[in-house]
Amino acid sequence: MALITPGFRGRRRDGGVELPPGQYPTEDFPVLSAGPTPRVPVDRWEFAILTETGEKHTWSWPELLALPSQTPTVDIHCVTKWSKLRTNWQGVSLDLLMENVESAADYAVIHSYGGYTTNLPVEDLLDGQAWIAYRFDGDDLAPEHGGPARLLVPHLYFWKSAKWVRGIELTLADEPGFWETAGYHNYGDPWLEQRYRGD
Amino acid sequence: MKWRVATVVESRAETATARTLVLDVPDWPGHLGGQHVDLRLTADDGYSVQRSYSLASPDRVEIAVQRVDDGEVSPYLTDVFAVGDAIELRGPVGGWFVWRPAATEPVLLVAGGSGIVPLMAMIRARRAAGSKVPFRLIYSVRTPEEIFYADELRRPDPGVDVSYVFSRKAPEGARRPVKRIGLADVTTHGWPPDFQPSCFVCGPTGFVETVADLLVAVGHDPSRVKTERFG
Question: ipTM score of the complex?
Fold first, then answer.
């Protein structure tokens, strides 16, 4: 039973949109990152998937853009409490990128330009749940939002959707990433409100 | 992380539109300068919201709330919430944007508006620990009336140099023209990159983007520039 805050009324939303617990909707697109925004020129950009046996699959920027893309419209949820509904993206499904990758790994560590890392189970990257996204709302993805390309995994808190993505390392053991070792939850399901370690 | 019940033990005006609240939290585990807490407010019909607030002090659970006129939570916390009232709180949260008293490298703090709060916690933590590490604070604020912790920052604190950037209105006699923070502010009042300082930048998104880009452009190692952005 929650403690009542006497005199607090709040501002109820209408429209029947269900949000994960503790979230509020925003029309803005807040920027959250732990350091300066890396700026990665697309002629030097490369994306790699590295398997647990050391096999490396790489895509240059033109190679990524040449792949069939999808245009998911998804709700996104930041652990800092904002949610942004019906966001429009364009990107390449991880199902496609992983198609010819031979791996028995259960875990993935996402690596970003700038040094950021985050971890998640491989199964959360597959079955139409994740993309390498390079356009937002019809425009090239802005650097502060992770451009030229970011991971998009909308069913987890948004720190898992690593900005400035440069590669995915497939691992046999789970290896917590940047925020996961700084006190945040290892998995981060917004609907279960898995914000911090121990939630 | 469990929710605790916190009780307001002190409430004072920080500026005309911001209040400092000090909370008593039983069994508080302690925290580092730069960490934050989550507050949960629940209406009598069960409607509930959460917000994060940076801690302003290294030893007390102290926050500062800037009133946003059309805000959902801040007008309640600044206008209604009073000494003796209780609220649900959990934390401390965040293990990256923190200053540890054992650190030895010089520190540059750059605050935009209410972004001063976690940086003030670091200044106070330095003082409480008796650290001799040199700190420089560049505090960008629209007008002199909007300075948080004005009296405390005016008092001499050996090893802590404070400079102000006024973006809308400067005090009488100020030599710097009124404008947003720029390269000259960072190079004049910050540390040279070869001193390898730890840089902490906190404020609104546009401010933090600008300052972090400036610091990297003048040669600071991006891995030494930690940022916290508001919205």
Answer: 0.85
